Amino acid sequence: MNKNKRFRMEGFFSKYGILVGLLLLIIFFSLKAPRFLSVTNAISLLRQISILSLLSTGLTFCMILNEFDLSIGEMCGLSGVLVTSLLLAGYSQIAAVLLVLFIGVIFGLLNGLIVTKVRISSFIVTLAMSTIILGFNYFITRGKPIYGQFPAGFIALGRGDLLSIPVPVIIALVFLTLGIIFTKKTKYGRYMYAIGGNIIAARYSGIATDRYRILGLVLSQFCAAMGGIVLASRLGSGQPTAGSGYLMNCFATVFLGTAIFGERIPNLLGTFVGVVIMGVLNNGLTMIAVPYYYEYIIQGAVLIGAVALTRIQAKS
Amino acid sequence: MFSLDENEKRMGEKMANTKYILEARGITKTFPGVKALDHVDFQLKKGEIHALVGENGAGKSTFSKILAGIFPPTEGEIFLNGKKVQINHPLQAIGLGIGMVYQERNLVPFFNAVENIFLNQEVTSHAIFLRQDLMKKKVIELMQEIGMDFELDKPVGDLGPSKQQMVEILRVMLLQPEIIIFDEPTSSLTKNEALMLFKLLNRLKEKVGIIFISHRLDEIFQISDRITVLRDGKKIGTHHTDHVDQKTVINMMVAREIKDLYPKASVPIGEAVLEGKNIHCGKLHNINFRVHKGEIVGLYGMVGSGRTELAETIFGLRKMKAGEVIFKGKSIQPKSPRVMIEEGLYLIPEDRRTQGLNLEMNVGENLSLAHLDRVCSGFFLSKEKERKNAQEAVDKFDIRVTSIGQIVSNLSGGNQQKVVIGKWLAERSAALIMDEATNGVDVGAKREIYQIMAELVKAGVGIIFISSDLLELTGMCDRIYVMNEGTITAEFAREQFSQQAILQYAIKDKGDMQERGAATI
Ligand SMILES: Nc1ncnc2c1ncn2[C@@H]1O[C@H](COP(=O)(O)OP(=O)(O)OP(=O)(O)O)[C@@H](O)[C@H]1O
Ligand SMILES: [Mg+2]
Fold first, then answer.
1. In this predicted complex, what is the ipTM?
2. Residues B434 and B422 reside in one and the same domain
3. Would an 8 Å CB–CB cutoff place B157 in contact with chain A?
4. What is the Cα–Cα distance from A302 to A9, expressed in whole angstroms?
5. In terms of residue numbers, what domain contains B520?
């Protein structure tokens, strides 16, 4: 009897522990800083996390396949400086955005082809690729930000509102929703989970494993490129190093996501909750005026904590 | 007839009996949603081989794992030599002298045999430096003692299932346990290797007590002294092997009666559906074979003879160096499994855990993975269709699950194998390769699989049936090819089947073969 009850409690915590944690965080911050729980802050919080959400969505595709993409941060940076440069060079908005997204796809393809055809682990390939991408970035910018007068349509991507919802939030949610449908509802998503779970069994089942692994790496670069475009629009400039900081946070969110709903494997909805947690942490800590260096320490601790949580769940 | 056992039981109840090296009382184990064991009593004597039999999911592995300290029982007591013990951890079991060869292999794939055998038992000098030379020497000694022979320097992941199984056995032997549990050790061994293992067991048993689990009843009767039957987690009874016959044991295991185990129907043989001409690939050379519509063709050989390699080559998992595959009348390049599946050739792979299943996915998801189009509505997966598809397979193959949503790694070994089979037989192909497909499957379900094979050939499917079980091969096949060292050395038609002759061609060494001229008999 007693035992039974304890068991159920454990089950609850392993499933919803993270959500409870999020709730506690929100309560804590709203007690400390009354402004935290306002609509304005909620919207600005969402605006802040939209770029992280885009990048994390992409990374989740990869991690479902049991692949890594360490080049998303730099792709985010490169696409920001590229899109601003192209606009200043007189390209139309649509052309500039599409071209940058296309370049993201090319880098993803490159990653994917090397990983699958040359058979090098994605960890190494994308680590190397991140340096190469940074090289291109500096080639274009020489390390200096790109400032200028940008068209209103482009600026709206990061700063605009639609029905009083920020445009970047809408973009992030569209990517997220499409991603959830794709991974959870279609056979292609099922294939990706199968490959991530047991690639040999997947191949024996007749799944074109290479094709989906390439797809995963392309999607992550594509999302990173999109994130970079929105980021540049929000900043109103192309900042060469703006993307680098996102990588670690992306991993944290995906791992947080694996610990949610007892899924144990990467999943987009979980990732999004992870993104919200990171957002709440950043926003809340800033609001209660914690010195910025603590933020780093806390972020790192959250990543370790998230992974630890999945391990504890795996045991039970 | 059973008076002796009854007597022993009564004595056991009164006091902890020191004449048993191991005694378990009232062992119960519940997993969420399943009662895997229900008040099981069990006694093991020193000097005996005690067989544990029962259908898939009867609780044999669960019982063994409790003794080996993998998990504790929910209820019940364990006595060793009359002393009550608690076994909370595998290391503790080892300390108490209990060693277990698990049903599923637990090796580090990129370690070689020596590294695996000495895992956590490493020989060191100055407490930290590995003495690989000493360890290797010890392993070679052990191998010679037992009569095994395999490569020690290769990663075990490249060794093939039977060699891996031997590594597992050596690993346990190294610990010199007093109680040894073998959970289906022969399911991945060939006949010869199994015989070798039996010789070893017979020699060992003087000093130890052995628990032996297997689905092959002929083995059980050949080697065991007593038999305990489990059904649905309950103990049905323990008998001296000499006092019972196979039929009695089968009837104790399965509530229903099984008449003829091999439902071989005569089916008209049609035109050739799958042909190989002069296939060369890796160690495979000069392979010629042909399978007709409506025909079951056996492929027999020792492990390492190239049966699995041949299957994988035809299925597009290995690149052919030379030769031709003719499928449904036209020449085809086996480029990838995907291509071959689309053409209508299926392979039920040998190793369920690495090749057959996604262990962390659930039963329904695994069953539909090879035919996702069947369970889609347009672009989207339909949970409803998937559930129906899975339910069909679960009913047809009598897969014991708590629900379609159960994670496959929680199923018993034999039920996992049934999932693999259900996954491939959900849709009809033109030809089918079954690589040790009945491994670890209980008698009832085996019969079920044979029945389905019979139905498939009636519908014109051609089947290549790879197996190390000569009884089922001679029972079900129309023809049998024998492979030896990468090529086909003999072909037998059904009228010519003789276990003796088949075995001879499978083990005869190459020089001898060539002298006589590789031949059709
Ligand atoms: N870790 C687990 N979690 C949940 N259920 C389990 C677990 N391990 C075993 N079971 C269930 O316990 C029952 C007994 O399984 P067990 O592995 O002991 O069967 P078995 O007799 O060894 O069968 P087989 O001949 O197929 O190997 C099965 O219904 C199985 O699904
Ligand atoms: Mg078992």
1. 0.70
2. no
3. no
4. 23
5. 269-344+429-521
